[in-house]
Amino acid sequence: MSDFAIEAREARALIKRILLEEWDPIGVFEFPEAQDEYDTYVSEVYRLLSQRAGVCEMFDYLWWLETTHMGLSGDRQKTEKIAERLAGLISEGITPGTEPSASA
To answer: Which residue, among 52, 58, 45, 59, has the nearest Cα to 98 in the 3D structure?
Structure first.
């Protein structure tokens, strides 16, 4: 497996963990049978990160998922925090094709 493929797999695993453990708008983290609940969103988050999306774009996607797609009232502050966390992965060089920034 290429370095790129390994990095991509690791990045996707981290995104999945953040969505499940930190964002988790429907509260399924504690249920073992629901550990794949947000898997369908990982690819879009990864794509946004690969395109160097900012916090606003990441927030817009997560907020849309939470309020429109899932029909929840949403937790704006928590979603902003998670958007910042995810967008911060770019400066950490977590996604393939990105390098850590000098300030990271």
So the answer is: 52
pTM of the model: 0.87
Tens digit of each residue's pLDDT (9 = 90 or more) over 36-81: 999 999 999 999 999 999 999 999 999 999 999 999 999 999 999 9
Q: For the residues of 91-103, what is the DSSP string, one character each? A: HTT-STT----TT
**Under a CB-based contact definition with an 8 Å cutoff, are residues 49 and 14 in contact?**
no
Where b means 16+ CB within 10 Å and e means fewer, 54-75 reads: eeeebbebbbebbbeeeeeebe
Distance CA(56)–CA(29), nearest Å, equals 25
